[in-house]
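2024-03-11 09:14:02 DEBUG pipeline.ingest accepted 1 chain
2024-03-11 09:14:02 DEBUG pipeline.ingest length=227
2024-03-11 09:14:03 DEBUG pipeline.predict start
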Amino acid sequence: MVTGIDSIFHIPYVMPLTLEEIEIQLKNRWSYPYKWFRKQNDVWDKHTNFIYNTPLWEELQLVIAKHAELHKLPKEEIFYYAINRWYNFWSAIAVEQVFCSSEYIFPAKNNKDRLIDFTIKGIPFDHKTSVFPRGFNKTYSFAKENKEELLYWFYKNQSNQQRQHFANRLFLIVYSKSGEHWKLKAEIRLLKGAITNYVSTFETANLINLTFETNQKALADIIWVEK
C-alpha cells in the first residue's frame, strides 16, 4: 500500500521542536509494529487530524485515547492509524525543513498548496518519503538501475485520496538491510545527509521526464537512503 504524506503545512510553518527533538519523538514509534487496519482514506484522516498539532509522543497517546472514547472508535485501530499518520507527517515536516534550509531551495509561497512543497532552481516540487515498495516486485538493486520504472510505479500506485496528482515530485526512498525500511523515516540525521548531498549536486538535466496516459507530464527524481 502506498500511503500519502498528507502534509498540510509547508515551511515557513514553524516547527515546535528542533530536528534532533523530532528524531527522538519519532523513534518512540519503533516500540510498536508498523501495521494498518485499513487503507488510508479521507474519513479516517478526518478522525485523526489532531496529529498535525501534537508533536510529542506521550501527548499523542493521550489524545488518541480521548478521541477513541469520545467517538466510540475501535481503540486499537484508531491507535495504529493515528500513530502511523503522526509518524509520517512529522518525518515529512522535518525532511521539508532540511530541504528548505538550502540556499538553492525556496518554500512554496502558498503553505497549503498540496502540489508544491518547494522550488529548486525555479522548478516546483512536491516531496514524498516512502519505504522501498514491496509491491514493486523487483529488487532494490534493479530499482536503482531502473529509476524511471520505479517512478512510474509510484505515480500509478499513489494514494487515490487527497495526495493523488501528477505534478513534479522528489521521492526520498528509504531502504534498510534489516527489512524494516519504515524505521529510517525517523533517522532524520541520515535523511539530512542524503538530502544535502543531492541538493549540492542538483542538475535539472538529471531529472526524469515522465509522460502519463493522460498526456500529463512531470519531472521527478529519487533520493536513495539506505542503511
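2024-03-11 09:14:41 DEBUG pipeline.report Residues 1-13 have pLDDT under 50 and may be disordered.
2024-03-11 09:14:41 DEBUG pipeline.predict end
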